[in-house]
């Protein structure tokens, strides 16, 4: 299953406010980010990935063209998805998030269904264990990820802290 | 594949990856090969027979303990796109604060080097090496001139840094408003409240037997103590880490404690471990580090002056000097928000192939550091075992007490937990202390940073550290600190200055920790 990232253009945030007057007090709690896809060919969206910065709840709406006869319409595919369980504290505030297509009720893009998804808490781990032989076959697929984890560890020579027997140091360096 | 299952597969893959490099893996492989000679192992059912053999011979249990140890220590794998620094600490402003703090420490150490004209590290001349080797078991008799050395920092310096932590996205302003915290810590970390703590520490409740309460002389041992000891012996016979961790939540019998802690920390003294310790000792003999003088000074100032711990002075040097040379400690920086200081071999500044970490284990000791080791000397007398236990305790728990992070067991969360508990459940006391200029955290901070070592009587301290191991969390330190204030609330309400408040709380050596914790969590009317 090869996946590629889809080029997209993320516009700046727009605050939702009532009326035209921009007030400096009372910042609104709802911001809208528009994401457009410059490529015209249709694609099957698998995953949306982003890094959160103090957003508590996320709603995703999609405008799709079903056919040339009907006008394009907006459908909600995710409503109030919870990113921060306690918005007044730091939990989840700067986490990396992935949203997969199976978290919305439909299976393929552009045919998103229009009923909204109920509020989902971050998914906890399963209580019971899955079938071991199935897991071990899936470990093969995960190998690429473990290679990435291993690559990110600093490589240290076991036991040796010197360079060719020399450990004469003057000062510490500030990186 | 559902998200939960892929998460689990990833965790399993990560643990397999880690264990593959371990000694246990080599041993299991050897055992599997050797088992082929056994009559019950048949070729047609090879996999099942070997698995059965591992189960019966206890090797499966060893593997279980190793897996459990990995799960307890290493954080769950995060999102694939998250960079390594995210695993160390997810919040950017905390990472930055830790970076600035580290820079200050490095500058302080560098200026000490320059002022005293002492190198950070040098190879000892052969004569000096011989001398040190002869004195190895009695380094405490040495009286080097340490007057010019000063500790790199003390807990109160660190507290000032924590007080100034600010989340740039959190609008609180400098003036007091309903949004500013009343205590010293101003960052909005999530901390548990008492209902959540009651659930978390459920084994400490009034209806559950505890060592530290139900083993006192007035209570007949048939009611709880005898049975608890019997269960402890069974847990040790089974050699099950997870069971030991659950068991020790109710406290450990003195006679079983050393073995139980070793089981929970998954420490078994193999010949390789003893050899490794000897190698570290050789490193100490060969190279002299500036950090050694800091360690000497710290031991002389703290443990040597303590009635309970001065007898262990020599052990402390043997552990801490080796600890500084142990490069295996570097691996814990993957999940520690701190980073090891870097240096270059003399004359090779900027050349990456001559870049090294200093000290070799990346940990610069501060004032009071040796108190993390001292209580362990009551339990372990063999230096390499004592060393292993301390090292594991450090990379699991103690490092969190002196680095800036958002982790629930990190010192910032502990401070906020302490302040929040006090404000919520003793609001009058908190208000009064603030009014007289005695912010409670200024008094309790040093207790928590040292995990109460040197403040409590040793038997009480060990009962407390039983629960740190049992719950795999340092939150109990904050709860105990609040419980101590609650206990002395009446006296504290009468004081009118910070000095007087400190005097009320100066001597904790008569306190019994388990009743205090139990009353605060389960018997305080809220």
Describe the structure.
The complex is a heterodimer of chains A (175) and B (526). In chain A, 12% of the residues lie in helices and 23% in strands. In chain A, the strands form four sheets. Chain A has a two-stranded antiparallel sheet with strand order 1-4. In chain A, strands 2-3 form a two-stranded antiparallel ribbon. In chain A, strands 5-8 form a two-stranded antiparallel ribbon. About 16% of the residues of chain A have low confidence. The relative contact order of chain B is 0.11. The chains are: A alpha+beta (175), B mainly alpha (526). Chain B: InterPro entries: Rab-GAP-TBC_dom (IPR000195), Rab-GAP_TBC_sf (IPR035969), TBC1D19 (IPR042507). Chain B: Pfam families: RabGAP-TBC. Chain B: This is TBC1 domain family member 19.
State the shape of chain B. globular
Low-confidence stretches of chain B: none
SSE pattern of chain A: EEEEEEEEHE
Strand order of the largest sheet of chain B: 1-2
The residue ranges of chain A in which pLDDT falls below 50 over 5 or more consecutive positions are: 106-127, 152-157
Cα distance, first to last residue of chain B? 47 Å
